[in-house]
Amino acid sequence: MADFAAPAANSPDTRGAYLALTRRRRLYSGLTILIFVVLMASGFYVADARNAGGFWDGWRSMLDFPADVVTEAWAKRAEMPGLLWRYVPALIETLNIAAVATLLGFFGGMALSLVSTRGLAPWPRVIPVFRRFMDILRAFPEIVVALVLIFVLGSGPVPAMIAIALHTAGALGKLYSEVNENADLKPVEGLQSVGATWGQRMAYGVIPQVAPNYLSYGLLRFEINIRASAILGFVGAGGIGYELRNSMTFGMGKFDEAAAIFILLFLTIVAVDQISSHFRNRLTQGREVLQ
Amino acid sequence: MTATATDTPGARQAEAVRRIATKRRAAFAVPVAILVYLVYVFFAFDIPGLAERARLDNAATLVADSYSHKVHVTRDNRSGEITVAKEGERKGTFPVEMEPPWVVRDAGDVRIALEDGHAVIFGPDNTAVYIHPGFGRIEAQASRAGGVQLNLAEEALPEWVSYSSSRLDIRTDAGRLTMTRNRTEAYRYFFGWELFWFTLDSPYYGRTPFEIVFGPQLDPERANVAGAWQDFWGNNVWRHADVAWAMLETILMAFLGTFGAAIVALPLAFVAAKNFTPLMTLRFGARRAFDFLRGVDALIWTIVLSRAFGPGPLTGALAILFTEVGSFGKIFSEALENVDDKQIEGVASTGARPVQRYRFGVLPQVMPVLLSQVLYFFESNTRSATVIGAITGGGIGLLITQAIITQKDWEEVTYYIILIVLTVMAMDWLSGILRRRLIKGDTG
């Protein structure tokens, strides 16, 4: 920028170079946008062609199914409170899966992050191994792990819990190791100088510094895990997703049940969203006050 | 400041002691609460009963199948016909002249050499002999009338033989022999995935890459490399072309969904941002709409949309789009509320119209942040697209659930898992590079 502000603004050289630069930039960004538009359009075309129903036909009938559900639920509105109550145990199971998976993933991610952060790791040479391990944990879609575990352990909440916990450990491990990198090393050195073991250095030197961030990310993960747990239920891992699939496969006549489940799921997600964002705000603001 | 009661050293000490005691109690109570919760879940999830339900033999099959394959030698006891086939599938059946050397047809007998000196001989009159070097011979005969009969008394059988008059099953580490009234079958296990590159009908089967590239022409019709590619791509056991399409469909879902959502969410985010929309009701409406889109969740969107559009990548893309419009709307409007007004005023002072003000005053400020968020979501949506594909029926998610449900093609499941993990890691890496470049471009 300083070049252009120089007094020789009228010098044809600078001016020409600037204009050329602008032209080239415009060309590049124009090309990027063009490629992007072509990709989007052709992508849409391909997706539309390979879909069972086309976009333009489906678009008009998009509201048919919600309308059916709402009509049926409205017609049987007297039974709605009873239905909502009936699915509360399934909802609790879904929440339990998410909560336990988040807890286990939280501790797993904490351990993984501590052994894969430069400056904190007890064995610095194997840091890359732990990092790749976390990458792999994150890359596995939960559904795959859950389905394989259902084959081995039988259907139920445990496969879903393990699947989500593994993924959570990888995801939180990565976030936590980024947090750890910003931790002040002085307390760790101080503890080391008095002969603290690695576990003690981490527990008293690092964790107190990073705990608010850890908790805040953990809460965010809990929100995500509730959604994941509902989805895994849909493929046979128990909880509210499983009930939803049952009422969906039955079709017409059970749509009031589907509606009840939709309502419960929606309310839960929104409620947890609100509560966790409240606590996360408090955690992050609390930290700002301390600084 | 006047000295109040709390300022005296004694009171301060009491306060400090009280606080430390509270912290101590918390340090004790939190782990106890977690432990109590875990105990509750331990029983709620029926973990004690898990040991009974767990099928460890399933796990063993799964692991063995994921890295090895077996070749079946089957005799139809009624017709006496013998076939040698990989995994017992018709597509993997060896033509007689290509049969492996460990199967020897010898004047009515078939000698099958297994590993470690074990062997199976299919003899005349539907007899079969399993030769175990450490145990001896187990002779069996299948007949219409008597079922399966053995030369040994049932008490003398070792635990790796399971026998009833309708079925004999001998399982050792070297191989396996099963016999029923209608069929005698011997299995031998091999390391690796069967027919991964070429099927048996391809002239390139069993050739090394060196032979294919530099060796003599194997098929008079086609050049070696082109022919090998055609046969590999059209391999009808592993269906590489279909798998590649499915993977592409999954990425396509994530791409269309994420970037489509970004395009839809950007103008809406202006409506939801305080500094661009002074009208309270409009802002409130936009924000609640975002909350609704996010709250409904991809699972419900997928179900609703698949009713209208049927299974396929478009449904998945739209499900991702609907959810992410909510997420992006929220993130974008927060970013827009933090823009610097000076640049907008500067652009406005040159007489720019509102659209120009947004384009040159606002977008350059927020673009790097927004794009890096979008890229981050793109990466995570590649994984979601697998899951959504499993529900709605499209992409690699569909293939992998189908393969898992059949409960026998674990080598294909492994193949798909490896593909998915590699793709997700590649996306992670790519979006990381692009994000770093965006952030650098911003500061430099």
From TrEMBL, chain A:
InterPro entries: MetI-like, MetI-like_sf, PhnE/PtxC. Keywords: Cell membrane, Membrane, Transmembrane, Transmembrane helix, Transport. It comes from the Bacteria. It is found in: Cell membrane. CDD domains: TM_PBP2 (cd06261). SUPFAM superfamilies: MetI-like (SSF161098). Gene3D superfamilies: MetI-like. Residues 91-276 form the ABC transmembrane type-1 domain. The keyword Kinase does not apply. One of its GO terms (molecular function) is ABC-type phosphonate transporter activity. It is a multi-pass membrane protein. NCBIfam families: PhnE (TIGR01097). Belongs to the binding-protein-dependent transport system permease family. This is Phosphonate ABC transporter, permease protein PhnE. It comes from Rhodosalinus halophilus.
From TrEMBL, chain B:
InterPro entries: MetI-like, MetI-like_sf, PhnE/PtxC. This is Phosphonate ABC transporter, permease protein PhnE. SUPFAM superfamilies: MetI-like (SSF161098). PANTHER family: PHOSPHONATES TRANSPORT SYSTEM PERMEASE PROTEIN (PTHR30043). GO terms for cellular component: plasma membrane. The chain crosses the membrane at residues 26-45, 251-271, 385-407, 413-430. It comes from the Bacteria. One of its GO terms (molecular function) is ABC-type phosphonate transporter activity. Residues 247-431 form the ABC transmembrane type-1 domain. The keyword Membrane applies. It comes from Rhodosalinus halophilus. The lineage of its organism: Bacteria, Pseudomonadati, Pseudomonadota, Alphaproteobacteria, Rhodobacterales. The gene is phnE. Belongs to the binding-protein-dependent transport system permease family. NCBIfam families: PhnE.
